């Protein structure tokens, strides 16, 4: 360990990374705002039980991945590994059940002690949404289609695929649990240690195992679709026909289950083949039991979360919304500083060159993605003028100093 290295699995976002990161965040928020979602900011850490009880004692996140520590008062705290549990906690402790339905957006860092690799970090970032208080499939249709519209707005419509499944209602899950246990029990000795433990506590979790040996066994497992109650079948049919009506392309993946304990009915993921093993960019589902299980008033919910780093890697170019004007002073530095100051006061981004020859400064202006260059050369200054160059078209002209600011503000 070297104390001057970043901690394994963490990274710095340098300005170019931040720009992409922000583009993802801002695009996500601007899309979900159109659906009436407001931003909630919950603490980065919570009491450990907020996560351990809600995510399930057998989930990978709880058993292997949480950053848990005792603080100076001896309380067990955990850096949030995901957003939903904290939002549900805020819903209960803030008494928000009078305001249903509630539409919430969040963004920010999450922490999981995983083996770092491309697209898999120990501190990563998510954007996510939660829709609380709507029981019917209209909520599922809105939340899934909203994710699709957001991915399209990021320019990823051709790169991702929506996979969707149903985990059924309570009745279906009881029936399925029995069928699954009956199938898996003869293989008990061949299952991984984790999956053996899951077989007793939460057999559906075995389906989500990443162990090759488990995967081979799971291939022949019965499907939830064979255990669905008529009501659960009807619910799923409404979700899929709603998505079709909205023109959202999807495939039904009957093997898709979610890693966390609290899901029912709709489960979905947007995946890509462009990121190797870390193919899931956005995942979500319905969690009607969660808030009641945490001790709050029984409240249905559905949501999703997307990994910003994975999305950033897929995004081709993040538009630079605030392209600067480059001021290139070859003579009077103070006059240049005064012009830059007055333009900035008027809301214009200005890149002010400090040193170097003309060529070097133009290279720097282009690197800053400037849209205009103002060249304050000695010759022009003698004529009381400056050269204004449009860096996209290359067209330039001489403008009297007295008219310079107005001209720039008009462009
Ligand atoms: P995976 O199967 O890749 O481990 P997960 O099921 O643990 O994903 P979720 O808890 O559903 O992931 O989180 C939603 C999204 O957050 C993922 O689809 C992914 O884009 C992102 N994500 C999850 N874990 C990480 C991580 N360690 N590093 C970067 N992004 C992550
Ligand atoms: Mg994971």
General description of the model:
- It is a single chain.
- The chain has 411 residues and is of the alpha+beta class.
- It is built from 15 helices and 16 strands.
- The strands form three sheets. Strands 1-5-6-11-10-9-7-8 form an eight-stranded mixed β-sheet. A five-stranded mixed β-sheet has the order 13-12-14-15-16, with helices on both faces.
- Helix 1 packs antiparallel against helix 5 (137-153), helix 1 crosses helix 11 and helix 5 (137-153) packs parallel to helix 9 (230-245).
- The longest helix is centred in the first third of the chain and has 19 residues, at 15-33.
- The radius of gyration is 27 Å and the shape is elongated.
- The model has no long low-confidence stretch (mean pLDDT 92).
Got a strand count?
16
Average the pLDDT over all residues and give the rounded result.
92
Shape: elongated
Strand order of the largest sheet: 1-5-6-11-10-9-7-8
Which regions are unreliable across 5 or more consecutive residues at pLDDT < 50?
A: none
* Helical percentage: 25-40%
Termini separation: 53 Å
Q: Hey, roughly how much beta strand do the residues contain?
A: 15-25%
Q: Provide the list of bound ligands, each named once.
A: adenosine-5'-triphosphate, magnesium ion
Structural class from helices and strands?
alpha+beta
